[in-house]
Amino acid sequence: MELPRFKYHPDPVATGSIVASDTRCARCGKVRGFIYTGPAYAIETYRDCICPWCIADGSAHEKLGITFTCEWDIARPKAQDPIPRAVVEEVAYRTPGFRGWEQSRWWTHCGDAAIFLGRAGREDLEGFDAEERAVIRESVGLCAGPEWDEFFDALTKGGSPRAYAFRCSKCGRRGGYADCD
Ligand SMILES: [Zn+2]
Ligand SMILES: [Zn+2]
Q: What average pLDDT score do residues 44-64 get?
């Protein structure tokens, strides 16, 4: 079965937020072959037990009250353009989130949520131009210089510190942020 489409998280299998699994979905009660492994904020605990279809159709949010990325973590830090409420809801309630060392944040650009490309290490950011890298640098509050160079060289997809790469859905510019354990 083909996975549902998520505009802002187009390949959740590649990013590791959705994995092949025969776990039964806590919302629809079916074994769909895939399960979501990212954050699920709710009163109850829903760890690795929601299928991608119940995320996409909004039922996991409506029936179980699950939020996948906190609303206030979309559009941080200091986004210039306000993000339409409908976009915030699509990302928070109907898009798979992802796990970071810190609580995950959703990068935004051009007044829209950006497309999540995945966790990124130094080699994944080699293709970023200077301005795009500066976005990652500013996210950790560093100035250009040896301290940043050292941090950049240490970025690793599977460890700490690491970056989270996004691409603007409107202008195609890349950006994101970094965190560490
Ligand atoms: Zn389901
Ligand atoms: Zn843009």
A: 97
State the average pLDDT for the chain: 95
- Distance from Cα 41 to the centre of ligand 2, integer Å: 28
Compute the distance from residue 34 Cα to the ligand 1 centre, in Å: 9
- Partnered with residue 160 across adjacent β-strands are none
CB-count exposure of residue 122 (10 Å: 0-12, 13-18, 19+):
middle
User: What Rg do the C-alpha atoms of the chain give, in angstroms?
Assistant: 16
Query: Which ligand has its closest atom nearest to the C-alpha of 170?
Result: 2
> Ligand 1 mean position to 76 CA, how many Å?
30
Q: How many A from CA of 71 to the centre of ligand 1?
A: 22
Identify which of 125, 114, 130, 134 has the alpha carbon closest to the alpha carbon of residue 157. Answer: 125
Which band of pLDDT confidence, cut at 50, 70 and 90, is reported for residue 1?
Answer: confident
pTM of the shown model: 0.94
Rounded CA-CA distance 44/89 in Å is 20
Ligand nearest to the CA of 132: 2
Task: Please confirm whether the linkage preceding 161 is cis (ω < 30° from 0).
Answer: yes
